[in-house]
Design brief:
Blueprint lengths: L2 H5 L8 E9 L5 E7 L11 E14 L9 E8 L12 H9 L3 E9 L14 E4 L8 E3 L3 E8 L7 E15 H11 L2
């Protein structure tokens, strides 16, 4: 295993958790929240930049609404704002969002009753592992991250999606930093 995989290049061996929430106020709409990342960009060396390395995301999609038998919820993270709060959400638009190059850690949950008298079940969290075989995660070099939630089941009332983001900080060279920023700004 490389040094970066164990320590992220900064000696950061203990990842941290960032909790993100987004709440929609109606049925079949997107909820969008932009959150500043807790990263000081100025590193110790002028030839290095500090970026966030995201290792995994645990999703909780509309967890307060577990009593509703039929519902479809989705969530994803993005490095750019691609949706606006209250935009109409459909299964088709969610599919388009999931394929966008600036969106990642996509989660989708559909719950329906099984049979006329059957039960239903959902298990949370939905865990998305973003590491490779050496333990390296996705590098994010933007100032903000966007959490987007969507509900397409027509159920009224507020819906909150929560993402628990496991991350650590790492240093990259300035050229790599510029390349990451350019690729994450669509």
């Amino acid at each position: 295993m490389s040094k970066r995989a164990r320590t992220s290049g900064l000696g950061d061996t203990k990842p941290q958790i960032l909790t993100l929430n987004s709440t929609s106020l109606g049925p079949d709409v997107y909820s969008v929240d932009q959150v500043a990342l807790p990263v000081a960009r100025i590193g110790g060396a002028k030839s290095k930049a500090v970026v966030m390395e995201i290792l995994s995301v645990d999703w909780y999609l509309a967890i307060a609404d577990v009593g509703n038998l039929i519902q479809t919820n989705a969530g994803f993270l993005s490095t750019v704002v691609s949706r606006i709060d209250g935009d109409p959400a459909t299964d088709v638009t969610i599919g388009i969002d999931f394929s966008a190059p600036t969106n990642f850690a996509c989660a989708f949950s559909h719950r329906a009753q099984v049979g006329a008298t059957g039960g239903f079940g959902e298990r949370y969290p939905i865990h998305i592992d973003l590491t490779d075989n050496e333990g390296n995660g996705i590098l994010v070099a933007t100032q903000n991250i966007v959490i987007v939630g969507a509900n397409t089941s027509g159920t009224a009332g507020p819906r909150t999606v929560t993402a628990k983001v496991l991350y650590r900080l790492t240093e990259v060279g300035i050229q790599e930093y510029v390349g990451i920023v350019q690729s994450q700004q669509a």
